TrEMBL record:
GO terms for biological process: riboflavin biosynthetic process. Signal peptide: none annotated. It comes from the Bacteria. This is Dihydrofolate reductase family protein. InterPro entries: DHFR-like_dom_sf (IPR024072), RibDG_C (IPR002734), Riboflavin_Biosynth_HTPR (IPR050765). The lineage of its organism: Bacteria, Bacillati, Actinomycetota, Actinomycetes, Kineosporiales. Gene3D superfamilies: Dihydrofolate Reductase, subunit A.
C-alpha cells in the first residue's frame, strides 16, 4: 500500500494559498501571493531536498498541475527538476485533460475512489503539493497518511486553508520537528485516531 503525504506551506492562521508568487493562485482576489519568499534559507532548502530525494509520484489538482507543468519540465537537476520530472503525475480533474508533460495521467471517475484504489497499487510514496481543493476531498475520505507542514511566521486573514470544508475531527501525533533561524517550523504529523476530550473543571 502506498503512503499518501500532504506537503504544504502554511501561515500561522492556516492559509496555504499561493506561497510562491503573486500569479500562483490569485483566485478570490487573493492579494498576498508570494508570502513565503522572505523566509527561505539554507535549512529549509535542505529539508525540501531531502523530502524529494527518495522516489515519489505526485497527486495533484488541476490548477496545481498547470502551475507545475509551466515550470518543472525545463528545470535542471540542480533546480530539483529531476525527481519531479521522473515522477508519475496523477491529476484529479472533473473535465478531460490533454497533457504535454511526460508521465501525466488523469484520474478517472470519483477522485476519492480513484485515489483509494491508487494507494492499493505498487509504487512509491504519493506526494500532494498545493492542490487545496483536492486536499479537502482527501481529508473527507480519510486518505492522508502524513502531513509535512512548513509553518511560516506570518498571518494573512484570508485565503484557502489547509483544513477547510473537508476537515473531520481527528487527533495527530508529531513525528518530527525542526525550526529555521527565520522562524519557519517544519513539522511532520501522522493521524492518531479520534479526538479525545476531558475536563479541567473541579468535581
Amino acid at each position: 500500500m502506498r503512503k499518501l503525504t500532504v506537503m504544504t506551506f502554511l501561515t500561522l492562521d492556516g492559509i496555504m494559498q499561493a506561497p510562491g508568487g503573486p500569479q500562483e493562485d490569485p483566485s478570490g482576489a487573493f492579494p498576498h501571493g508570494g508570502w513565503s519568499f522572505d523566509y527561505f534559507d539554507e535549512m529549509l532548502g535542505e529539508v525540501m531536498a531531502g523530502e524529494m530525494a527518495e522516489p515519489f509520484d505526485l497527486l495533484l489538482g488541476r490548477r496545481t498541475y498547470e502551475i507545475f507543468a509551466a515550470h518543472w519540465p525545463d528545470a535542471t537537476p540542480e533546480e530539483g527538476g529531476e525527481g519531479i520530472n521522473a515522477a508519475t503525475k496523477y491529476v484529479a480533474s472533473r473535465s478531460p485533460q490533454t497533457f504535454r508533460w511526460a508521465k501525466s495521467v488523469q484520474l478517472e471517475g470519483d477522485a476519492a475512489q480513484a485515489v483509494a484504489a491508487l494507494k492499493q497499487t505498487d509504487g512509491p510514496e504519493l506526494q500532494v503539493h498545493g492542490s487545496s481543493d483536492l486536499i479537502q476531498t482527501l481529508l473527507r475520505a480519510g486518505l492522508v497518511d502524513e502531513f509535512r507542514i512548513k509553518i511560516f511566521p506570518v498571518v494573512l486573514g484570508r485565503g484557502k486553508r489547509l483544513f477547510g470544508d473537508g476537515t473531520l475531527p481527528s487527533a495527530f501525533r508529531l513525528v518530527s520537528t525542526r525550526t529555521s533561524e527565520r522562524g519557519v517550523i517544519v513539522a511532520y504529523y501522522q493521524p492518531a485516531g479520534a479526538v479525545t476530550t476531558g475536563s479541567f473543571a473541579r468535581e
